[in-house]
Amino acid sequence: MADICKEEIYKSLYFEHGTYLRNFLYYKSGDMNLAEDLAQDAYIKLWENCKKVSIEKAKSYLFTVANNLFLNKVSRKKVALQFANTKPNSDVDVSDPHYIMQANEFKQRLEKAIAELPENQRVVFLMNRIDKKKYREIAEELSISVKAVEKRMHGALASLRQLHKNV
Amino acid sequence: MAYDENIYARIISGELSDDEIAQLKSSGEWQEIQAILQATEGMTIAAHDKEKGFDALIKKRDVQASKGNGTKIRRLYLQLGSAAAVVLLLAAAYLLLSDSSIRTSAANGEMAELNLDGTIDVTLNDGSSLQYTETKENGERVVKLKGEAFFKVVPGNKLSVATAHGTVQVLGTEFNVRSWGDNFTVDCFEGKVAVTKGQQRDELKAKERMTFRRSGKGKKTTIADSRPGWMNGATRVHQESMSEVIEELERQYDVNIKHAPSLKTFSGEFVHSDLQKALEQICSPMGLKFKTSAEGEIEVYE
User: What is the pLDDT of residues B100-139, one digit of tens each?
Assistant: First the structure.
């Protein structure tokens, strides 16, 4: 039971979930420093309670603690997310400058629209798109049902689809 | 649009019927959602260096622990896994000191001196701490030591020193107790002391040393000095692991030293007044090198 108290297991838990926990907090807050800070604090909490938490529960423990830390700390404000290295689609003709301009413009508007999504929808959407997580995994981490994840994802896509309407 | 619920979400999970797909395509929604999915396909955020992240986490964790929520002490015991029985045995002695106790510590790179009852002089080596009650309890003086200290007791007075490894009892004497990591060493300079570790009890006469390693029985040797080396501005060690020697050096100078784990043991001495010289004293006989970076980081390497 007290396995997490072993430094090498604790470390492997960090290597397994640390990035995703940080990303999760970033999707929520749009503040990378805060995300890294709170992710560290969640791991410190895990260490302090290493005797009480089983390895199987470690992941959802981390996400729950991180979520609580976030709720305690943050007065909600508008988030501005920074995305990096968005790869070009491989199946498009990159030699057409008009197309590239359009695609870039679309991407910019899309990124802005993602930042403006309700927090719940944004987090689910980015956990799927960036961290490539399945709905089942997201549900487990957020302690909600798969149905609830689908609902948030659907909501996110429905809002983002409006981008096509007001070009 | 009377679709089944969450239909857009099910485009991603691929759980749509042919009918549903056809319907979405004819309304143009399929293409619009696909465009969003494509545009976000290669999306990433700032990269995360896990090695660095973990180092930063541990640093923060240990700083918080040293601010006194007991985590650091717990860690020490965890490292002593094999000595669990000893820790249990000592629990009784520790409990005696539980509430009204006072703690004196010597910061890294410093020593601390104190006198108990006018009959016991204690010199604490750096990074060590001593816990004790204000007055004797039942005529017995019990102190709890973490680290290393030299004791001088006026003849006729009793003293018990409890450590994580074992207890040392005396009747008027001068002796040094070193209890760091896996290492438990008692030097008797004058008089007589009794060392108890687990079931084993040994008596030391003047100029005798008892050394315990990770496991197994203690080894008795003789010493020539009349004071522990660290009280004369140097640390002298006998067949201690490189990591323990480097930890001692870190405590002495209050620095962090990067080094690869090593099974080699070191016997010798290093001074307390000059870090450069101390590093040379340790590294040159071991065939090791060391360097100091511009940021003041010290690294010992092969």
Answer: 567 777 777 677 788 888 788 888 887 888 888 777 766 7
The string of DSSP letters for chain A reads -GGGGSHHHHHHHHHHHHHHHHHHHHHHHS-HHHHHHHHHHHHHHHHHTTTTS-HHHHHHHHHHHHHHHHHHHPPP-------B--PPPTTS-TT-HHHHHHHHHHHHHHHHHHHHS-HHHHHHHHHHHTS---HHHHHHHHTS-HHHHHHHHHHHHHHHHGGGTT-
Residues of chain B in contact with residue A82, where contact means CB-CB under 8 angstroms, are: 45-46
Q: Do A14 and B57 touch (CB under 8 A)?
A: yes
Q: Using the beta-carbon criterion (under 8 Å), do A129 and B43 form an inter-chain contact?
A: yes
How far A75 CA lies from chain B's nearest CA (Å)? 23
Which of B35, B48, B57 is opposite residue A43, by nearest beta carbon? B57
Q: Does A147 touch chain B (CB under 8 A)?
A: yes
The ipTM (two decimal places) reads 0.82
> Residue B73: is its pLDDT beyond 70?
no
Same domain, yes or no: B209 and B282: no
pLDDT at position A13: 95
Instruction: State the distance between the two ends of chain B, measured CA to CA, in whole angstroms.
Output: 72
Interface touch A18/B56, C-beta < 8 Å: no
Within this chain, do residues B110 and B33 fall inside the same structural domain, yes or no? no
Reduced to 3 states, what is the DSSP secondary structure of residue B86?
helix
Q: Which residues of A touch B50 (CB under 8 A)?
A: 14-15, 18-19
The verdict on A73 touching B (C-beta cutoff 8 Å) is no
Residues of chain B contacting residue A135, judged by C-beta atoms under 8 Å apart:
9, 13
Residue B2 within a domain: no
CA within 13 Å, CB half, B220? 12
B76-91, pLDDT tens digit by residue?
333 333 333 333 334 3
For the domain A2-73, what is the CATH code? 1.10.1740
- CATH number for the domain spanning B289: value is 3.55.50.30
Residues B165 and B262 in one domain: no
The predicted-structure confidence for A42-84, as pLDDT tens digits, reads as follows: 999 999 899 888 998 899 999 999 988 888 765 555 666 777 6
| Pair (B221, B138) in one structural domain | yes
Q: Does A134 touch chain B (CB under 8 A)?
A: yes
Comparing B142 with B170, the larger pLDDT belongs to B142
Q: Any idea of the CA torsion for A5, A9, A15, A19, to the nearest 10 degrees? A: -40
Interchain pair A151, B9: CB under 8 A = yes
User: What class has domain A97-164?
Assistant: mainly alpha
